[in-house]
Amino acid sequence: MRLCTLALASLCMAGPARADIPPLSEVAISTATALRDEHSTAGVAYGLVESLTTEVGPRMAGTEADVRAVAWARAKFEALGFDSVRVEPFSFPYWRRGHERGEVLSPFPQPLAVTALGGSEGTGDTPLEGEIVAFDSLAELQAAEPGAVEGKIVFITQRTQRFKDGRGYGLSVIGRSSGATEASKRGAVGLIIRSISTNSDRFPHTGMMRYAPDVKPIPAAAVSNPDADLLINMLGRGEPVRIRLDIDAETRGEAVSYNVIGDIVGRERPDEVVVIGGHLDSWDLGTGALDDGAGVGITMAAGAAILKQEQRPRRSVRVIAWGNEEQGLIGARAYAEAHAGQMSKHVLGAESDFGAGRVYALRAGVDARYWPVLEQIAAVLAPLGIAFEREGGGPGPDVIPLVQRGMPWAQLAQDGSDYFDYHHTANDTLDKIDSEALDQQAAAYAVLAFLAAEAEADFGRVPAQ
Amino acid sequence: MRLCTLALASLCMAGPARADIPPLSEVAISTATALRDEHSTAGVAYGLVESLTTEVGPRMAGTEADVRAVAWARAKFEALGFDSVRVEPFSFPYWRRGHERGEVLSPFPQPLAVTALGGSEGTGDTPLEGEIVAFDSLAELQAAEPGAVEGKIVFITQRTQRFKDGRGYGLSVIGRSSGATEASKRGAVGLIIRSISTNSDRFPHTGMMRYAPDVKPIPAAAVSNPDADLLINMLGRGEPVRIRLDIDAETRGEAVSYNVIGDIVGRERPDEVVVIGGHLDSWDLGTGALDDGAGVGITMAAGAAILKQEQRPRRSVRVIAWGNEEQGLIGARAYAEAHAGQMSKHVLGAESDFGAGRVYALRAGVDARYWPVLEQIAAVLAPLGIAFEREGGGPGPDVIPLVQRGMPWAQLAQDGSDYFDYHHTANDTLDKIDSEALDQQAAAYAVLAFLAAEAEADFGRVPAQ
Questions:
Q1: Shared domain check, B105 and B23
Q2: In this structure, what is the dihedral angle of CA atoms A332, A433, A437, A455, given to the nearest 10 degrees?
Q3: Which of A126, A445, B304, B409 has an alpha carbon within 20 to 30 A of B372's alpha carbon?
Q4: Which residues of chain B does A283 touch, with a Cβ-Cβ cutoff of 8 Å?
């Protein structure tokens, strides 16, 4: 998952409920209940994540491994019996990471655990050396005296707070995404940030950043939480702290990747679709188990469960393994554009991209007249420990470009308390995943997608943005 | 801490207690009680570890940073007011680590998190490529069919179990120390082991290994726990798994390091000494906070507390920041040899080298006639949550060479439940340490050292080995 705006939460429109919305049928509820309690698919989601992380591993968009991931997803959709499987290409600037090393030069020489932020320029032929200047936050940098960082390396020290819903990420990630731009505007020669991380393991966390068009690109990297503490302790001695960054990274040329799409074709309204999915790409440091092998495995498994039912749902269920989410929802934006003409037929969308914790809440952004149908869905989900919450939440990141074109969304909110312990690090590996938790999520997605596709009613529209 | 034999546990000699052992005086007990409850030194141990990890950082024996660590320790002993501060040199073969990279070549290419074991040879100008062959343990490798590993890379998959007393380490570390020798004997071209680790973070754990004199040295490395799982999952597909190791490491020439010694000179029997300490060197991957900045900080702080008392204890208390423990108790062996003639005056020794967890037990290896004195010491320690255990335990690693020459030992056993989560990794950093836990340990060492030095009785001898 990358930066996810919550600005869309207001899309949960207010308005009176209407009595003319047809409720879900007893048969539909009964089928969904069976889906929920179905155990024949136990372990399917985990098996998919195991397969993806073992047989492909890290799969940053545009790499050779990304190509293998696309082939993997296509083959899995086919093996699971999806009615229609296809890929849809899109292109984007290719970012490459080479070596990366950091160290303190003075007053206390020692190595630093660093990683370049996605999209960062490298340090060139000569490593970058400079004095660091610490700021508690991006806002503090923006308020700095003119000249305060001229020729220096800005160090943003903000800590990311731990919350079940991961909102601490939203509070600190601006330093990652915009720090280099703000530092460069003020004459700094580089940026380091405390990793956007909720734990204290010595893994630097990567993640996307961007340069504003009018600033000189400067190298931007994250240090691990312990390294950030170390630098702060050094700065506490009162002497200048000089570091060296040796980063090989660049954005060069264009790459192509693909959204991989598996359709369960609806029996009555095949052109109307309920979209679920996760994103197929990962950062390059870990094996992308939590981010977002889990989401791909969960939603593929949910589709597989629906495929085992006696008949197809009324509408189509579309499972999408989104391409290049990490570098800016590239695949999702391409999909939304390519399918703009069919967006009115996209009745509901949800994405699993928040790790492997259990789902604890259903939230949605739909026309309020359709709350009664969501209440029926929520009643089926309740025995899974899932509450119906009428406020808050937002769509998964890859769903955003579709919601911006009017598609209603649902969210199966997961417990992400430890998500930012591992997110975007080398430590995002399979061992962090509990297979039974994935089963709970797969069941929840199966119920949601099936009932949304089976409903006589749709969910209205949300205001296009 | 490196491989620590428990074979010495039997040195706790049996025998009848005798009535002619003078007990500790009421004044001594009263002073020790004040030491225990003294809060003026709160935070001293943590401050020392913070200083060592911040101002020196990683300090592998023989490196430039090791030289800085020696200067640091000397300066700290002096600043704390020790009566006599000196260094004692010793030499050893110098091992150097350069770059290290691992990857799976086929069937599923992806990177591996690896680190060379201490003492390993590098892979030379050309990276080593080969098929891996997995064994559950060193014993299974030793039982393998002739030819089973010829030309291949042996992979020892044994897991290290978590125990409060860390004994899981003793059960698995043989694969690290002797794996390369046993693999080479059988014609293997390299060794990888599952890290001797109790957690599932993606840090490979280094640590010492040795080649038997008669075998061809082959590169030896550890992979992290998640990487070991990954390789096992790949092997489960039934195809050969080929990896590449690119390791720059070598043992070349001799280096010099130092034991740094701070004495508190006894008021009556200055030539009789009670030895406490930790080891000053660390591995190069982390900042050596737990291993063994903590032990150095704890025992220096204990000495500082004793120095604040109105008068010196009867005997001398010697705090030793041992040099080059990691590569084979090199400093301790040199000390034992250089001081062989005074070993009969070393009345008791203890080392803190098991991280930063609280002390929960006092154990000892002394002539059994002196148990009553230890019982008195234990009574003072009890309010710190420390039980007196009459069986088990063993001396800290650097104390072993002295115990082998007859010195009685004590052990302030720490809770090491999470010690092997961080041990010998890049993740051994200051944030893993709780300052209050260090205070408890420093108080315990102060009480033990003071009362052992103040006792009219000594603790006899243990059988020399």
A1: no
A2: 10
A3: B304
A4: none
Residues of A with CB under 8 A from a CB of B: 50, 53-58, 65, 104, 107-111, 113, 200-203, 225-226, 229-230, 233-234, 237, 286-287, 425-427, 429-432
Of B100, B325, B326, B351, which one is the catalytic site residue?
A: B325
Q: Where are the beta strands (DSSP E) in A225-268?
A: 242-264
Read off the pLDDT of residues B97-143 as tens digits, 9 standing for 90 and up.
999 999 999 999 999 999 999 999 999 999 999 999 999 999 999 99
Whether cis (ω within 30° of 0) applies to the bond prior to A292 is yes
Is residue A7 over pLDDT 90? no
Tokens 């000179």 correspond to B265
Catalytic residue, from A121, A325, A351, A454: name it: A325
**Judgement on whether residues B166 and B68 belong to the same structural domain of the protein:** no
Residue type, A152: K
Q: Specify the residue for token string 């030992």.
A: B409
Q: What is the CATH number of the domain that holds A152?
A: 3.50.30.30
Evaluate the CA torsion angle B97, B98, B103, B105 in order and state its sign.
Answer: negative
Is A325 designated active site? yes
Q: Are residues B445 and B303 in the same domain?
A: yes
Measured CA to CA, the distance from residue A289 to residue A293 in angstroms comes to 5
Return d(Cα A368, Cα B350) in angstroms, integer: 72
Q: What is the CATH number of the domain that holds B22?
A: 3.40.630.10
Q: Do B225 and A431 touch (CB under 8 A)?
A: yes
Q: Say whether both A283 and A424 belong to one domain.
A: yes
**A303: phi then psi, degrees, rounded to nearest 5:** -60, -45
Contacts of residue B435, Cβ cutoff 8 Å, sequence gap at least 6: B42, B43, B45, B46
- Which residue bears the tokens 């300490």? B277
Are A323 and A456 contacting, i.e. CB atoms less than 8 angstroms apart? no
Q: How many CB atoms lie within 10 A of CB B358?
A: 19
For B86-146, the DSSP string reads: EEEEEEEEEEEEEEEEEEEEESS-EEE-EEEPBT-----SS-EEEEEEEESSHHHHHTSPT
Do residue A430 and residue B54 have CB atoms under 8 angstroms apart? no
Exposure class string for B158-167: b at 16+ Cβ within 10 A, else e: bbbebbebbe
Query: Same domain for A14 and A159?
Result: no
Structure tokens at B246: 């690119």
Record the pTM: 0.94
Alpha-carbon distances, residue A91 vs A55, A254, A284, A333 (angstroms): 24, 6, 19, 11
CB B414 within 8 A of CB B354: yes
CA distance B57 to B412: 26
Name the residue among B157, B183, B156, B160 with its Cα closest to residue B171: B160
Sign of the Cα pseudo-torsion (B415, B420, B422, B423, in order): positive
pLDDT in tens, A187-238: 999 999 999 999 999 999 999 999 999 999 999 999 999 999 999 999 999 9
Which pair of structure tokens corresponds to residue A310? 């006696």
Task: Report the number of secondary-structure helices (H) and strands (E) in chain B.
Answer: 12, 14
Cα A432 from Cα B225, distance rounded (Å):
12
Q: Which two tokens stand for residue B10?
A: 């039997």
Domain that holds residue B390: 7-83+265-454
- Measured between CB atoms, which of A113, A230, A233 is closest to B426? A113
Structural domains of chain A, count: 2
- Tell whether omega for the bond before A127 is within 30 degrees of 0, i.e. cis: no
* pLDDT given for residue B9 in this prediction: 40
Q: How far apart are CA B177 and CA A311, in angstroms?
A: 61
Q: What's the ipTM?
A: 0.94
